[in-house]
Predict the structure.
Amino acid sequence: MDTTTTPRRGGGQPLLHQKGAETQAFGTLKQLPIGLGHDTRMYACQRLNRLLADTQILHSLYKKHHWLMRGATFYSLHLMLDKHAEAQLALVDALAERVQSLGGVAVGDPRHVAELTGIPRPPDGVEPVPVMLSRLLDAHERILIDARDAAARLSGEGDEGSADLIVSDVVRTGEAQVWFLAEHLVDTPLVHG
């Protein structure tokens, strides 16, 4: 037998182009012994996936605007937006892992994210800097409104873990980032004449 053309099981050759059936559909739960009922976990996964989709879009907006910054404050905004994007990416991971820990399936494909998000799509081109910053502020506000509602409802359902993640991470990070962004829209001349 020619082993150079026929991969052997366990022979170190990658088994490429594998296909298989979906093992868990989006919107379903697997049972995990975490002390939360099915309906609570299902609702939590739905709310968390919506926040996850919006947070992925916000992360992408931050990266887009980071690349497209212009003007006298380019350098500071360029760095700040990248730092904010990194924080949003950390939230994406935390939210996705929470969905998984509840037995759900985290939304991950960008095409699926686009179907779930409530954040409006920006134009494909470049906007004025204040418009880009305002777009980020609007996205944050949408997420913060949804996050506060989700945290209150999930806490009422007994899912303190999800509520804590939302308040401690999503809300607090969002509020701090809004503050930094909004201060860049204060009309303060760079030079007094």
